[in-house]
């Protein structure tokens, strides 16, 4: 029982870290050889703002799992229509847009649900 609580407790944290790293890797498209180094660094930092916000939410979720779970679930579900519409306008493919949602938004929904489940399991078994 304690092993499953530990796994459920650490799994959302690990998945969230990997998802944030993945989002951060997407910021590398800010580098453009036609711009100066200072402009490129500025663009890169601007592209990393979502990653910084997600890191702050992860810190909140680390301390308060229920609040963090709700935040990540809302992020994943709330941004899905925007991600879908943006990508549908770019590539005119429903399936490609759905795949991009699976890669970007769904991990945060899963993380949110796992944080909520972890909170409930710890509340049920307070010795952990």
Write the layout of secondary structure elements.
Layout (H helix, E strand, L loop, with lengths): L1 H24 L11 H11 L1 H15 L1 H27 L2 H11 L1 H19 L4
Helix pairs in contact: 1-3, 1-6, 3-4, 4-5, 4-6
Short recap of the structure:
This protein has 6 helices and no strands. By secondary structure, it is mainly α.
Tally the helices. 6
Radius of gyration (Å): 17 Å
The low-confidence runs, each spanning 5 or more residues with pLDDT under 50, are: none
Largest sheet: none
Q: Helix/strand/pairing class, anyone?
A: mainly alpha
Structural features, described:
With about 130 residues, this protein is an all-alpha fold. It has helices at about 1-25, 35-45, 50-65, 65-90, 95-105, 105-125. The protein has one domain. It has six helices and no strands. It starts with a helix and ends with a helix.
Keywords:
128 residues; mainly alpha; globular; membrane; DUF7670 domain-containing protein; transmembrane; transmembrane helix
């Amino acid at each position: 029982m304690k092993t499953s609580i530990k796994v459920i407790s650490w799994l959302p944290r690990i998945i969230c870290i990997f998802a944030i790293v993945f989002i951060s890797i997407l910021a590398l498209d800010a580098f453009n050889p036609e711009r100066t180094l200072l402009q490129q660094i500025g663009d890169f930092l601007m592209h990393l703002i979502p990653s910084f916000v997600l890191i702050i939410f992860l810190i909140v979720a680390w301390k308060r799992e229920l609040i963090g779970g709700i935040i990540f679930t809302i992020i994943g579900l709330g941004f899905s229509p925007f991600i879908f519409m943006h990508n549908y306008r770019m590539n005119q493919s429903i399936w490609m847009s759905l795949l991009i949602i699976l890669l970007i938004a769904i991990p945060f929904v899963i993380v949110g649900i796992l944080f909520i489940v972890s909170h409930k399991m710890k509340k049920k078994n307070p010795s952990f």
